[in-house]
């Protein structure tokens, strides 16, 4: 692994360690590029999410990472990103909030549908077709905004219903990603801790569509910046489905975000 763009920090309440420890572990593991992408703040009204940083923490997040980026510039290329949801009602305001900071990229990580509040978590098993379809259409709308570098764990949605419905919905999602040249992430966290994703059926579909893929460690602790133990299994998904792996992505300039 040369690059990992999917790294969390303590601000999301479910990650540990200091940012510096992630950087030093990345250097020791031979990474050339380390992108931080903690769960993005959302400008909710009358609601406080417990799985992401608050808008008031964005300043500290960016300044901490900017200092490390400068300090370690001869050792590793550090990028400042966020893993963001696409919530239609809050999107414009969220982008406005990000524009005040030197954030270099966004990963799309759609963990909830709707606008999160009162909506189901996508990783809970469900046979409801409307939830599957909402997930796919929301990801498709998000990708079409042109704001996201790649789609993290596209197979997070845990649909247990009719396989032909899954195939049809996910084929649309994969086709949109391919048309827009947005890579799909094989999530190494999912492999390592045996989550319901990566979903073998999903990667078969992505292979048939011809998507480009990237590996993301989804590190929530410094020792997980590369997740070497999960690489073999990830390679197996890639080889079996003839997927094209991209290792390094161009990071858009601030003005493009
Ligand atoms: Zn995620
Ligand atoms: Zn993540």
Walk me through the structure:
There is one protein chain. The chain is of the alpha/beta class and 257 residues long. It has one domain (3-256): Metal-dependent hydrolases (TIM Barrel, Alpha-Beta Barrel). The chain has helices at 19-28, 58-71, 91-98, 129-144, 163-179, 188-192, 200-209, 231-240, and strands spanning 3-4, 33-39, 77-84, 105-108, 150-151, 184-187, 212-216, 244-245. Helix 3 links the parallel strand 3 (77-84) and strand 4. It is globular and about 50 Å long. The two termini are 26 Å apart. The mean pLDDT is 96. The structure holds zinc ion (2 copies). The site of one zinc ion (ZN) has 5 residues, from loops.
In the CATH scheme, the class would be Alpha Beta
- In CATH terms, the superfamily is Metal-dependent hydrolases
Approximate strand percentage? 5-15%
Q: Per the principal axes of the C-alpha atoms, what is the gross shape? A: globular
Provide the helix percentage: 25-40%
* Unreliable parts: none
Briefly say what this structure is.
The relative contact order is 0.16. By secondary structure, the chain is of the alpha/beta class. The chain has a single domain, classed as TIM Barrel, CATH 3.20.20.140.
Task: Name the features.
five-stranded parallel sheet; globular; 8 strands; alpha/beta; binds zinc ion; 257 residues; TIM Barrel; 35% helix; three-stranded parallel sheet
